[in-house]
Design a protein that fits this description.
Blueprint: H1 20-28, H2 42-50, E1 56-71, E2 77-90, E3 97-98, E4 110-111, E5 114-126, E6 134-142
Antiparallel strand pairs: 1-2, 2-5, 3-4, 5-6
């Protein structure tokens, strides 16, 4: 009997465990609808709060670090992994703005653009069959 790791590609799972980081990043960036946005990630909340006065923004997610997984009794996989997010902000052409992110940008600092890096961590369940993966727990914050 051969042993398998939860990160091996399993044809019975909608998303191969080894590709969960990329699938999550694509979903959060709007390039896929593989999984639902958990709704509480710091980078996406900050982007939404800055958008009314800084409409020229982008928020991109990238795989970072290792992926760990456990097979579940039902044949699914419980995955632990992280992403980094890069939120880039700019005012309308020719403008400047002030941004307050403690430890990174001071409220009195005048900027023509700004970038903030975030660390997002996830615990995601990938069920057996066609059902979508679902984020069970996450943590998110400014990381640089």
């Amino acid at each position: 009997m051969q042993s398998r790791r939860a990160t091996d590609n399993d044809p019975n799972l909608r998303v191969p465990p080894g590709q969960i980081q990329q699938a999550t990043a694509a979903s959060l960036d709007g390039a896929a609808d593989t999984m639902k946005n958990p709704g509480n990630l710091a980078d996406l909340q900050d982007q939404a709060s800055f958008r009314p006065r800084l409409p020229d923004d982008s928020d991109r997610h990238y795989a970072s670090g290792p992926v760990f997984g456990l097979k579940t009794a039902g044949g699914g996989a419980l995955m632990f992994y992280g992403l980094t997010a890069r939120l880039s902000l700019a005012p309308p052409p020719g403008g400047t703005f002030e941004l307050g992110i403690p430890g990174y940008y001071s409220p009195g600092q005048t900027l023509a653009s700004a970038t903030a890096m975030y660390v997002d961590q996830f615990v995601t369940y990938i069920p057996r069959g066609p059902a979508s993966p679902r984020v069970i727990a996450d943590a998110s914050g400014v990381g640089g």
